[in-house]
Amino acid sequence: MKLYYLPGACSLASHIALREAGAAFDLERLDKASKKTESGADYLAINPKGYVPALALDDGEVLTEGVAILQYIADENPKTALAPAAGSRERVRLQEHLNYVSSELHKAFSPLFNPKSSEADKADAKTKVAEKLNLVEKLLSDGRSYLVGDGFTVADAYLFVVVNWAFPSGIGLDSWPHVAAFHQRVAAREAVQAALKAEGLAA
Question: How do residues 9-22 score in pLDDT, each as one tens digit?
């Protein structure tokens, strides 16, 4: 398999999941401006959507969309318990969290990294991010270690990556102590540290 990524982007969640699963894979970085990969390939020929992640499978198929890739990695490696069993209530909760991070929290951050955003756009985005983080803070305040209880899942990988954007965006996590503790807990995982180092995001 080969994962196409941008350092620190949402593709980091898939990268973390692959390492958590102990999967064999290669990494190839995308140049966002040129839409070329580091080997010189035309990324739009690989993924016409033009964004990361994309996961090229060994049989030649290419998967896109982070949430789909995360669930694929979990289902291909069931012994790792990166997702609860299909058909269980916990599996539905996993999908609930994945969709919330994708459609609400991730989307709320987007204007903060868009060079075309005005200062008013950015101020509005920070307000929306705070509202979304308030809900995550309340969820984590019941003492759970991770989103679906005490077991790390692919939803936690995704939440970690998006929450991490609070630092370069200038929002920080001081107002959300349970989210901050979650971020530190996930950051300490061996697979997460390995992924961060591989992407040049940690020493």
Answer: 999 999 999 999 99
Burial of 154 (0-12, 13-18, 19+ CB in 10 A): buried
For CA atoms 39, 160, 21, 93, the dihedral sign is negative
Q: Give the closest residue to 146 by CA, choosing from 87, 84, 198.
A: 84
Q: Are residues 73 and 128 in the same domain?
A: no
String of DSSP letters for 127-167: HHHHHHHHHHHHHHTTS-SBTTBSS--HHHHHHHHHHHTTT
pTM: 0.97
Give me the domain span that covers residue 21: 2-80
Tell me the residue type at 9.
A
Q: Is 75 within the bounds of a domain? A: yes
